[in-house]
Amino acid sequence: QAKARGRGVCCVFTAEMDEQLRARLALEMDLRQAVEERQFELSYQPIFDLKSSKLCGFEALLRWHHPERGLVGPAEFVPLAEETRLIVDLGEWVLRQACMDAVQLPGDLRIAVNLSPVQLIFGDAVATVRDILAETGLDPRRLELEITETALLANDNRNLGTLRSLKELGVRIVLDDFGTGYSSLSHLRLFPLDKVKIDRSFVRDMTAHSDSAAIVAAVAALAAELGMTTTAEGIETQDQLDAVDRAGCTEAQGYLLGKPQPILKAVHTTLFRRSPRNRNQGSRARDT
Length: 288
Ligand code: C2E
Ligand code: MG
Ligand code: MG
Ligand code: MG
Hints:
The protein is an alpha/beta fold. Helices cover 50% and strands 18% of the residues. The chain starts with 14 loop residues before the first helix and ends with a helix. Residues 176-177, 197, 233 line the site of one magnesium ion. Keywords: Coiled coil, Membrane, Transmembrane, Transmembrane helix.
């Protein structure tokens, strides 16, 4: 491979690069072992309906219990898991675990699982989801699959067919992190989406910049017009919660309302305690 790039080029190899390469290789080896030994855990973050203040469900977020480094977040290993395609195996574990946990949840609470574009392209996503639904007995309507716009762009539209087949299974398709990267309004029309999650960078700016608030309001209105709901991500303050409510978003998620927690803790803290919104604005929650 180095040869192909021509003589001389391959020799520019600094100590720093060597260090980076070593770190990467070490992480890759650890990750392979972690997937084999299932050193993972899911954290669940609640999602609330803004009108009723009721709990809609939870998003499953992946955590790695690294034997030496302790708890490692997905930002640190999902990219490498995607590059090495380990995410296909890992993602299947996530989906199975989340569906197993979901059937234990009361009522019609939903569970949201993040799907990597690599799973759509290289994993047999449709068969995997179908099998896991059958295995766990979870009502497909209670499963939400979160994909990012990268997944819509990759693989020359073949993912469109995959998403349509997934939707035929009865699950809901959610566009995650909308407003970052290659956001295009045509995606909202072209792909079979049930919900759009508005990225937390917009939510963060909304209270300070009226143009961010206008964008969120426009996206929420457009989504509603197209028959989709909207979740505002990353709600950290009461002002942000009020702002996304005014902007017409349908659901909200963020540290203010609940941090990601192990399943039992997540269920207990959200079902047996009133949400911050209820606590602060009891009268408003009731008048809807
Ligand atoms: P995401 O799907 O957009 O998930 C939301 C992220 O925002 C989570 O970070 C969550 O902990 C964080 N978050 C939630 N509320 C707040 C808030 O109020 N403030 C701030 N600052 N952050 C908040 P996390 O768990 O570190 O996950 C990061 C990303 O990793 C996720 O973004 C998702 O893209 C990816 N990821 C997580 N689990 C999985 C998985 O099972 N499979 C795949 N393929 N990707 C995953
Ligand atoms: Mg997500
Ligand atoms: Mg997101
Ligand atoms: Mg995000």
